[in-house]
Design brief:
The chain is of the alpha/beta class and 331 residues long. It is built from 15 helices and 10 strands. Helix 14 packs antiparallel against helix 15. 51% of the residues are buried. It binds 1,4-dihydronicotinamide adenine dinucleotide and 1,3-dihydroxyacetonephosphate. Its EC number is 1.1.1.94. Keywords: Cytoplasm, Lipid biosynthesis, Lipid metabolism, NAD, NADP, Nucleotide-binding, Oxidoreductase, Phospholipid biosynthesis, Phospholipid metabolism.
Length: 331
C-alpha cells in the first residue's frame, strides 16, 4: 500500500485516483477550488467533468497542499499545464525528498518553452516520471482497456510507476525517451484542434486522415530536433495519442476545434467546454518552438494564426492546400 497525493480533482486526476484506490492505495486529492471540493463531497462525484462516476468514501479531499503531499510516497500532478510551476512551488516545502512525482498533465510552459517534467525538475529535485498515452478519463473510469507509457530519465522510477498503475484494464509500458514522450502528448493537442475544425466545417474522413498523417510528421520533425527518438512518435504517446484525441467524442481539444469550425470564437468555445483545453496554450509554445528550431510546421502555424491572429478557418485551409508542391517527407 502506497500513500499517494493527487494534485487536481478534474477528470484525469479523479480517474487515476479511482484506479489507484481500487488497487488498495491510500489516496488524498488536492482541490484547487474549494467549491469543487464541496460539490465532490456532497455528491461523491464531479458533475462538471466526470458525471456518473462515483467516488468512494475512502478517498480523502483537501484544499491544503501541505496536507495532501506530506509524508506521501507518490505525488501525481494532474493540474492544467499553466499551473504546474506554481503547484510544484507550493508543495516544495512539504514533499518528502524521496517521493516520486508523476506528471500526467500535457503541455509546454510558454515562458520558458520547457516541457512539464523540466518545469517540475527546475523547482524540486525529486525523481519525475511522465505518464502519457491515449487515455480519456471517461473511459479509464469505466475500466475500458487502455494503454499508456511511463517515462523518466530514471528507468527504475519509471518501472515503479509501471507497477503502481498496471491493472487488467490499464496496461503501462516504459520508454526512456522522456522528451519524445512529453512532446508527443503536448503537441497532439494542437493538431486535434485542427481535426476538430475539419469536423466543424463538415469536411470528411479524407481531410481528417490527411491532418493526422501530416500532423504526426510535424510533431516528429520538431520532436527529433529537440532530442526525441523517431520511433517514439510512432508509438502510444505519438500517433496513438494523436489518433484518440483527433477522433474521440470525449476530446476537449477536438471539440474546441469543432466549435471554432462552426463559427464560435475561441472564448465562446472554451467557455462551452468548461474543462481544460491544453491545445490552446500549447499552440503558443509550439509556434515559438517552431520558430526557434526553424522547423516547417504548417498545421501548427495555421492553428496559431486562427487562434491568435484572427485568420479565418477558411483562410487556414486554403493556405495549407495551396502550399508549394513537394515530395512527401517524414523528417
Ligand atoms: N481528461 C483526460 O482524459 C486527460 C487529461 N490529461 C491532462 O491532464 C491535465 C488535467 O486535465 P483534466 O483533468 O482533464 O482537466 P479538468 O478541467 O477536468 O480539471 C482541471 C483541474 O485543475 C484545477 N485547476 C484549475 N485551475 C487551476 C490552477 N490555476 N491551479 C491548480 N489547479 C487548477 C481544477 O479545479 C480541476 O480540478 C491536462 O493537462 C490534460 O491535458 C491527460 C490525459 C487524459
Ligand atoms: O490527452 C488526452 C487523451 O490522451 C485528453 O485529450 P483532450 O484534452 O483532447 O480530451
Amino acid at each position: 500500500m502506497q500513500k499517494i497525493a493527487v494534485l487536481g480533482a478534474g477528470s484525469w486526476g479523479l480517474a487515476l485516483a479511482l484506479l489507484l484506490n481500487e488497487k488498495g492505495n491510500a489516496i488524498t486529492i488536492w482541490c484547487y477550488d474549494s467549491k469543487e471540493k464541496e460539490d465532490i463531497l456532497t455528491f461523491r462525484e464531479n458533475k462538471r467533468c466526470l458525471p456518473g462516476i462515483k467516488i468512494p468514501l475512502e478517498i480523502q479531499f483537501t484544499t491544503s497542499v501541505e496536507e495532501a503531499v506530506k509524508e506521501k510516497d507518490v505525488v501525481i500532478m494532474a493540474v492544467p499545464s499553466k499551473a504546474i510551476r506554481k503547484t510544484t512551488e507550493s508543495m516544495k516545502a512539504f514533499v518528502a525528498e524521496e517521493a516520486l512525482i508523476v506528471n500526467v498533465s500535457k503541455g509546454i510552459e510558454f515562458e520558458t518553452l520547457y516541457t512539464l517534467s523540466q518545469v517540475i525538475q527546475s523547482v524540486v529535485s525529486n525523481p519525475v516520471v511522465v505518464l502519457s498515452g491515449p487515455s480519456h478519463a471517461e473511459e479509464v473510469a469505466r475500466h475500458m482497456p487502455t494503454t499508456v507509457v511511463a517515462s523518466s530519465n530514471c528507468m527504475a522510477s519509471a518501472e515503479k510507476i509501471q507497477d503502481l498503475f498496471m491493472t487488467e484494464y490499464f496496461r503501462v509500458y516504459t520508454n526512456p525517451d522522456i522528451i519524445g514522450v512529453e512532446l508527443g502528448g503536448a503537441l497532439k493537442n494542437v493538431i486535434a484542434l485542427a481535426a476538430g475544425v475539419v469536423d466543424g466545417l463538415g469536411y470528411g474522413d479524407n481531410s481528417k486522415a490527411a491532418l493526422m498523417t501530416r500532423g504526426i510528421a510535424e510533431i516528429s520533425r520538431l520532436g527529433v530536433a529537440m532530442g526525441g527518438m523517431p520511433a517514439t512518435f510512432g508509438g502510444l504517446t505519438g500517433i496513438g495519442d494523436l489518433m484518440v484525441t483527433c477522433m474521440s467524442g470525449h476530446s476537449r481539444n477536438r471539440r474546441c476545434g469543432e466549435l471554432i469550425g462552426q463559427g464560435y470564437s475561441l472564448e465562446e468555445a472554451t467557455q462551452k467546454i468548461n474543462m481544460v483545453v491544453e491545445g490552446v496554450p500549447t499552440a503558443k509554445g509550439a509556434y515559438a518552438l517552431m520558430k526557434a528550431y526553424e522547423i516547417e510546421m504548417p498545421i501548427i502555424e495555421g492553428i496559431y494564426e486562427v487562434l491568435f491572429e484572427n485568420y479565418s478557418v477558411q483562410e487556414c485551409v486554403q493556405k495549407l492546400m495551396n502550399r508549394d508542391k513537394k515530395m512527401e517527407s517524414f523528417d
